[in-house]
Design goal:
single chain; alpha/beta; five-stranded mixed beta sheet; two-stranded parallel ribbon
């Protein structure tokens, strides 16, 4: 198993209220030259958790941080125009993300939490992950 030192949260940068799937994201990433979907987990708008790339494999979601990280993506992150960043997480997505981060923290207790925007000039994940989830990591 790889050493995991970072959990990195992303948004799909898709319009609020629209559903997308792991298969959709996989196709977008393949079109960009990736060998598979870059994220390890994807949280749909209804809160269901879906597996992307296996955790044992290095992801393709954050340049310079893929080797020792897990990439987590929620569907949404933009207003209906598909361009303006917005926290579009549903109540179900917030709950699922909290549950996933809690489980991953138990499995990888030394891993730190990050939003993609900490490492890239992007608004992704369109919310302050530290404000919402640092309490999981400070126990």
């Amino acid at each position: 198993m790889r050493t995991i030192s970072e959990l990195i949260i992303h948004c799909s940068a898709t319009p609020e209220g629209k559903n997308f799937t792991v298969a959709d994201i996989r196709q977008w990433h393949l079109a960009r030259g990736f060998r598979d979907i870059g994220y390890h987990y994807v949280i749909y708008r209804d809160g269901t958790l879906h597996t992307g790339r296996p955790v044992a494999q290095v992801g393709a979601h954050c340049t310079g941080h893929n080797r020792h990280s897990i990439g987590i993506c929620y569907i949404g992150g933009c207003t209906k125009d598909g361009k303006t960043p917005k926290d579009t997480r549903t109540k179900e997505q917030k709950t699922a993300l909290k549950q996933l981060l809690t489980a991953l923290h138990r499995r990888f207790p030394r891993a730190t939490l990050h939003g993609h925007r900490e490492f890239a000039n992007k608004a992704c994940p369109s919310f302050d992950c530290h404000k919402d989830y640092d309490s999981i990591f400070n126990t």
